[in-house]
Every structure is written in structure tokens, then in C-alpha cells.
Amino acid sequence: MTGRVTPEDTGTPVPFAQFIVKAHGRCNLACRYCYLYEGPDTSWRARPARASDAVLDRTASRIAEHARAHALPAVALVLHGGEPLLAGTGRLAAFTGLVRERVPAGCHVRASVQTNATLLDARRIDTLARHGLRVGVSLDGGLPAHNALRVDHAGRPSWAAAERGVRLLARRAPGAYAGVLTVVDPRTDPVEVYESLLALEPPVLDLLLPHGNWTAPPPGLPPGDPDTAGPRTARPTPYGDWLCAVFDRWFDAGRREVRIRLFEECLGLLLGFPGATESLGLDPLNSVVVETDGSIEQVDSVKSAYEGAAATGLDVFRHSFDEALRHPAVAARQAGAAALAPACVACPLVTVCGGGHYAHRYLAGAGFRHPSVYCADLERLIRHTAARLAAAAVGSGT
Ligand code: SF4
User: Fold this and answer.
1) Residue 351 contacts residue 25 (beta carbons within 8 Å)
2) For strand 295-297 and strand 287-290, is the pairing parallel, antiparallel, or unpaired?
């Protein structure tokens, strides 16, 4: 079964509210694990390095058109790469201004860039902050050893430049500092990674599981077939264990040190609130990508599955975002429980887990309708979070 879901299965599509625009399609780093440039999808090679004026102009108009058609009160504009700062901060600011100018009155544009921080200097930080662009930083931890795989194209470590950039951002423009995004490496000491990141003073931490699937599993998990992998209670949970250790450290400190989106999301879903990230929950995905050539694509994580996995065949010159909403692959991401494997539908954790990240469900030749390759890790985290929440509620007498 390929798990193909059509818009008919899902009812009315949910409009896009997050537009991820590839302002620049190359990176000044060559991180050893990068799924974008070292993974199975090589479509970036045929695309222009930088989005042209025509692509950015048309993208701004398409975003405005979508905001108007759906009377959106707000949209998120995420300037991504590669390394978006390679496009030039003036150019990023001008594009953001164009989007703000064209969306209807009353539609708020929350704009941000996601950077490896190595190019952040005072001038660039000031330009971004002045134009209302918040800055998210991608790091693997707060110490040189954590970032050993984040190297430039000559294999030289990037940590010194990244640390300089992120500390300058925290000091010079704390209001523009959106937070740090870190991919979990279970070979590291979880509490050491957490505390080292705290030292960089992020307002928010995003802890992400590395992209992998049943055919190309993440480090530490065996390859296999979800139908024959055996009971999840018998499988290793290196990522769940790592996350639980950080959760305990964070929870025991009263959750005051920093916001951790994954944990807040898990707690919220356990309490019955709607979800807001791709990693957990059953809420429809409302993000879409515009590549440097104007192609409209699904979010990048799907590229970790196979060549061309994110493609839709649509582009901003010929197609509206409404047309992208009707694309079967996008519909599958909005289908919630209708797109899940039978094992997930029957799982008692499904309203919190949601089958995990879509990209992590893939099995070559059999599509995405499977439990996550992180099924056992997700169960470990969710049950641990639920137990801590229940104990805290008893302790407080609620
Ligand atoms: S992936 Fe999540 S919802 Fe699916 S079976 Fe595993 S724990 Fe349950």
C-alpha cells in the first residue's frame, strides 16, 4: 500500500500559514549528516543558487493572494536555505517588506531566518532586527565537540564562527533572537548538551529527531520492515532515552530556563490542546516551500526519503498556493488519522504521537503509511511525559 490520500479523503484543505522560502539554495557549510545536500534528493544541483528578483516578486504576490483568499490573520514567512544569509540581509529584508506590503491589511507577517550563525555579524544582525526579522540558529549543542560534524567545504570546523555569531545575536538583539534548533544525537550526553545550549541564552529550543526512515534508519536504530520489526517494547530507544533525560532536567527546573517546543507540544497534546509542530499530533501540516527557481514543494524533510519526494510539479509563476493545497501529496499531509497506518490508528498514543514525523514513516517501495521508525522512542517519551505530568498533578493536589 502506498498510502496515497486525496483531498476527497480529507475534506476542506487547511490553508497554508507558513511559507518557507529558499532565498538561497546553497550553504557555506557541508555538515556531514546534512540530508539536504548529502541525502538522496539531488534536485538542488539543477536549481539556481539564489532566488531571482522575479521569483521573490512572484512569491510575495502568491503569498498575498493566499492570505487574501483565506482571510488569514497572520502568516509565517521563514527564509531558509541552504544558508539564507548568503542571499544578503538587505535582499532578505526587501523581500520581507514586499510580502508585508502586499498582504491584506490586518494580516500579520511573522518573518524569520534560519541560519547556521557563522555569517552573523553586527551589521547583518542590525539589518535583520531593524526589518522585523527574527533569527533562528541551527547548532548541534553548545560546545565544540557537539558541533564536530558541522564543517565547511574544506572540512574545517564551524563552531568558532557560529558561537561568535550566536553570542553576538543574544547580546546585541535579544528581541530578534528566535531560538536554537538542535538535532538529537544520542551519542552525546543529553544534560551536557542541554546545559551548553542554555549558556547561549536561547528563548526557545527546538529538539528535532534526525531524519531517517525504515529503509535508511537514523544512527543507532536498525534497518527493518515495520511489519516485521517485532513489538516496540523490544526495540532500542536511544532517542527516547536522550529526550527523557533532557525532559527531566528541564521539568525539574520548573520549565523556566527555556521553552522547549517538543516538550511543550507533548504536554499540551496530553492535556488535549491542539498541536503546532510537524513532529507530534494529528493536526494538518500547513507549511509549503518555494525553491530558488520558484517551484512549489512540500517541506524539505520529505527529501530524506527519496529523490524528488518533495516535488509537486507546481511553481509560483503558473500556480497558486490553492492549487498546491489540492496536490495529493499535500493532501496526505493534511489527512491526519486518515493517512496513518492501521497500527497507528489502533495505538492508544495516537492523538499525541500522530504517527510521528511524516518523513520518518517511509519504507522504500511501500510509501509512508507506516508507524514512525521512531515508534518505540516516541512511546518512551510520551509515556514518560505523561507519568511526570500525572505525578506533578498529584503533587500539587490538582
Ligand atoms: S508511531 Fe506513534 S501512533 Fe504510531 S504506533 Fe508508534 S507510538 Fe503509536
Assistant:
1) no
2) antiparallel
Q: Confirm or reject: Cβ of 373 under 6 Å from ligand 1.
A: no
Provide CB contacts within 8 A for 239, sequence distance 6+: 184, 186, 209, 218, 220, 221, 374, 377
The pLDDT assigned to 38 comes to 66
C-beta 371 within 6 A of ligand 1? yes
Output the residue whose Cα is nearest ligand 1's atom 6: 375
What gap in Å lies between CA 384 and CA 248, rounded to an integer? 9
Calpha distance 272→295 (Å, rounded): 37
pLDDT of residue 284: 81
Residue linked to cell 493566499: 66
Cα–Cα dist 380/376, whole Å: 6
C-alpha cell at 13: 484543505
User: Residue 218, Cα to own-chain centre: how many angstroms?
Assistant: 16
The answer to whether the CB of 339 is under 6 A from ligand 1 is no
Instruction: For residues 16 and 312, give the distance between their C-alpha atoms in angstroms, rounded to a whole number.
Output: 15
Distance from the CA of 33 to the center of ligand 1, in angstroms?
26
Average confidence (pLDDT) per 10 residues, the chain, 398 residues: 40 88 88 71 80 97 97 96 93 98 97 96 98 97 91 89 97 97 95 97 95 90 76 85 97 90 94 81 88 90 75 94 89 81 93 91 90 95 96 76
Q: Is 133:112 a contact under the CB 8 Å cutoff?
A: yes
The separation between CA 385 and the C-alpha centre of its own chain, rounded to angstroms, equals: 21
**Number of the ligand 1 atom closest to the C-alpha atom of 341:** 4
Residue 398's pLDDT is: 59
Given phi > 0 = left and psi -120 to 50 = alpha, else beta, which region is 47? Answer: beta
Hey, what's the cell of 250? 528541564
Cα 236 to Cα 242: distance, rounded to the nearest angstrom: 12
Per-residue pLDDT at 290: 97
Ligand 1 centroid distance, CA of 370 (Å) = 9
E strands, 258-359, in order: 259-260, 287-290, 295-297, 311-315
